[in-house]
Write a structure and sequence with these properties.
With 188 residues, the chain is α/β, with parallel strands linked by helices. Helix content is 21%, strand content 35%. It has one domain: Rossmann fold (3-Layer(aba) Sandwich). Strands 3, 4, 5, 6, 7, 8 and 9 form a seven-stranded mixed sheet that branches. Strands 1-2-11-10 form a four-stranded antiparallel sheet. The structure holds inosinic acid (IMP).
């Protein structure tokens, strides 16, 4: 195991510090300002996609200068470090409450976009007034769908990341900083 304080071990993989808690805090405040400009006359409903976006959502809504509703939705598409390509909505979606509302979907990370693409189409069927996407992280080179991406915190390379809500096989979510898979411990 490494003695480098910037490096951590989760299961069989090593990760190194990538985006610090201070950098995240500053960027989330900026994103809150951006949203506040666009939603100052509105009371949108945030739909955080669980579990990964729980920490980001808690910080983002406190950085927004408008009142809002929340609807936490549980979805899954990942096993370990791989997207299964199959998306399931596990809990929380009450579509009848979305008709005529301004919806803001909150993601931790957009990788291939499979999860989000599926979810947007599901939400559209409930006839909201508008749909916007907020994601802390985006892997632009992995994206496979033409999705309107309104508010993005960081564009990052395709390496796997953990921390600040993001997990590797269940662990790493509670870390306050974001870590990236150490080069050399490559994904299979
Ligand atoms: P997508 O459907 O391929 O865009 O993947 C989106 C979901 O996969 C995210 O909401 C995460 O739960 C998970 N995911 C994608 N990339 C990563 C990563 O680098 N670390 C942890 N989870 C990830």
């Amino acid at each position: 195991m490494s003695s480098n304080p910037n490096e951590i071990q989760i299961h069989d993989k090593s990760f190194e510090i990538f985006i610090t808690r201070d950098e995240i805090r500053a960027r989330v405040v900026e994103m809150g300002w951006e949203l506040s400009k666009d939603y100052k006359e509105k009371n949108p409903i945030f739909i955080p996609v669980m579990n990964g976006s729980f920490m980001f959502t808690a910080d983002l809504v406190r950085a927004c200068k408008f009142d809002s509703e929340l609807m936490f939705v549980g979805m899954s598409s990942y096993i370990g470090m791989e997207s299964t390509g199959e998306v399931s909505i596990n809990y929380g979606l009450d579509g009848q409450l979305l008709k005529g509302k301004d919806v803001i979907i909150v993601e931790d990370i957009i990788d291939t976009g499979t999860t989000l693409n599926h979810f947007i189409h599901t939400i559209e069927d409930f006839e909201p007034a508008s749909i916007a996407i907020v994601s802390l992280l985006l892997k632009p080179t992995a994206l496979r769908f033409d999705i309107p991406l309104d508010y993005i915190g960081y564009k990052i390379p395709e390496a796997f990341v953990v921390g600040y809500g993001l997990d590797y096989d269940g662990l790493g979510r509670t870390l306050p900083d974001i870590y990236q898979l150490t080069s050399g411990t490559d994904e299979e």
